[in-house]
Amino acid sequence: MNRLAGVTSPYLLQHADNPVDWWPWGPEAFEEAKRRDVPVLLSVGYSACHWCHVMAHESFEDQATADYLNEHFVSVKVDREERPDVDAVYMEAVQAATGQGGWPMTVFLTPDAEPFYFGTYFPPAPRHGMPSFRQVLEGVEQAWSTRRDEVGEVAGKIVRDLAQREISHQGARPPGEQELAQALLGLTREYDPQRGGFAGAPKFPPSMVLEFLLRHHARTGAEGALQMARDTCERMARGGLYDQLGGGFARYSVDRDWVVPHFEKMLYDNALLCRVYAHLWRATGSYLARRVALETADFLMRELRTPEGGFASALDADSDDGTGRSVEGAYYVWRPEQLTAVLGEDDGRLAARYFGVTDEGTFEHGQSVLQLPQSDGVFDAERIESVRSRLLAARAGRPAPGRDDKVVAAWNGLAIAALAETGAYFDRPDLVEAALGAADLIVRVHLDEHARLARTSKDGRVGPNAGILEDYADVAEGFLALASVTGEGVWLDFAGLLLDQVLTRFVDPETGALFDTASDAEQLIRRPQDPTDNATPSGWSAAAAALLGYAAHTGSTSHRTAAERALGIVGTLGPRVPRFVGWGLAAAEALLDGPREVAVVGPAKDDERTAALHRTALLGNAPGAVVAYGTPDGEEFPLLAGRTLVDGAPTAYVCRNFVCDLPVTDPAALKARLDAR
Asked: Which of the residues 272, 312, 528, 556 has the least number of beta carbons within 10 Å of its own beta carbon?
């Protein structure tokens, strides 16, 4: 029976034809394990995961391995992007037991879903001290058959240990000046001054930390914060992490120098980084930041936009290398002779120098990842643009990486915010329209009549899994950005609906702590709760930021209080582990600054003078500032109530907690107000 054939997850569909008798996550699988009195193999991954593909090919497509699994186990396949709650709970157990984690995640469970043995990738034969997957299966089966009491004791202890991992939050206060200064000092100690970024290899783009650094500079003028952000952004953009032909970023660099990426491209990374580079341009006017922000936005539009108007999750790292083999990075890497074949001798040599392509190669088998190792100023810009466009056209003829077409609500929320702001900053109405299209898809397909979000959709069909905290928070963040950019108050209303769900279903009313799953969600062995950022902002910090922004728009005391209580954990963690609470630190910067509320009123939204004030408001660097835009006493935005024109001219009001400075009518005066510390 092919139980995966009708699912919406592209990752599960990749396994639908395996000889393994896979079950999707659900009570039926565990009931079957109880009926047969066998353990459960839980295999968790995602569609763009290179080692997930490797293990699938080596083991799950192997008939003998499948036969053994089918006889002795109930095998459950989970897409971590559709069920991040399941992934989080068992990854916590894996990391506690082994000191590390990753995907594919391989966990053996009792029929009561209690874990007792863990791992990640297992090879088909013993290798580098690792047992083969078959050896692991045989060992687990033997333990289950002959030492059941011991297995039960181990599983029970793990579940009890997980249950005791409560987050101490009672009475914690949001970070103030001292805690934010300590967080900056901690980041300075971990910063890599030669290469940008933090820590060693592998090196991930520190998107959330960069937002904190930019906001801290805006609020305090700390040049060190801006320097770390600017240099890291330049290093990433000039390295192999960034696609020098098509725009967009790979998931991480395997080395400290940003040279060789792990080639999968994720929606969340590119949405977050598009916004970071747009904000860096806003702060500095950097040409490089402007180019990268726009190229990344264009990558999102060209490569990840779905026919329904949403944005797909990811592009695979692997693709056909032209010989029928699926190889990591094959789509992106070049040899000198390949450049010459496309460009001719002279331009081929130029491209090799410009992009750092060498005879030895910077990747594998004499191939190079394109970089920008030298200053652009020594090359003819028009000729380079011709070279780049011809190489991009030639690359389009290669077999393309697979695309994970599912639409994840949270990641689309991040994309909505990035495209709305980038479109507004750089006069690209097509980007704003794309943000509106994605927001419309979320409302039409993901949001039900009770304002509850579904986590995913595919081909316009809603998935079966409930949204988690990050979905509500990141979509609300996207809607708030849309409201500020478009002046359409309906997006503020939708954000309010989502954040009310956060207050009623995700917040501990006693402490103000947040959970990643709703109070009425499926009960797992532990209710997941993690305030630290990973590759995306934590749901906890994202909710705090969105609650704060909504409160600034509306004056809602309950939303602001919830944001302040949630940020208490950042006051505790920020000085100790600032790299892992960057989004919370960024929200704390907004809280210390107010955040500022800007109301722009004019005789009509399409009035040129009103539009100039509105653009100035959007380009202000004040941390977390919100913008309301419309006609006097516009009912769509509470901030506009009572705001009148001055001498009949379009007027802007800069406020904190709805207490406003004197109104201004000149864009330069508004800019000065917003830049004031």
From this structure: 556
